[in-house]
Amino acid sequence: MNLLETPLPGCYKLELDVHCDSRGKFVKTWKRSFYSTGLPDVAFVETFYTVSGENVLRGMHLQLPPAEYSKLVYCAAGSVIDVALDLRRGSPCRIFCRRRPASWWPSP
How do residues 50-101 score in pLDDT, each as one tens digit? Predict the structure, then answer.
């Protein structure tokens, strides 16, 4: 597992280890020691799994304290386009978009 910085401060691309054999693929998306070292403020509270059809837009969310939360986005099959809009005044990066299998979006 590796955390790679993106143009949006606090958002990271995750490089996950994919283990392949004759049975298929195995990917570990959560490991306490990894997240506690790389992202020490992370405290996962809940998890979701969705299956979407082709060309589906799923979720544009505005997060304001005290109801903000971080997100771990993982695409098990197909592709996903993640878009983060940083609407805070003075933000060095107002928009960041990527097509990745996994990413970390922090709470504001």
Answer: 888 888 887 766 777 787 777 788 888 887 777 777 777 777 665 555 555 6
**How far lies 39's CA from each of 16, 74, 91, 108, in Å?**
15, 17, 21, 14
Which residues have C-beta within 8 Å of that of residue 14, sequence separation ≥ 6? 1, 2, 3, 4, 72, 74, 100, 102, 103, 104
At residue 71, φ and ψ (nearest 5 deg) are: -135, 140
Q: What is the DSSP string of the chain?
A: -EEEE-SSTT-EEEE--EEEETTEEEE----HHHHHHHSTT------------TT---------TTS---EEEE-SSS--EEEEE--STT-S-SEEEEE-SEEEE---
| 69/108 Cα distance (integer angstroms) | 8
pTM: 0.66
The class level of CATH for 2-48+63-105 reads mainly beta
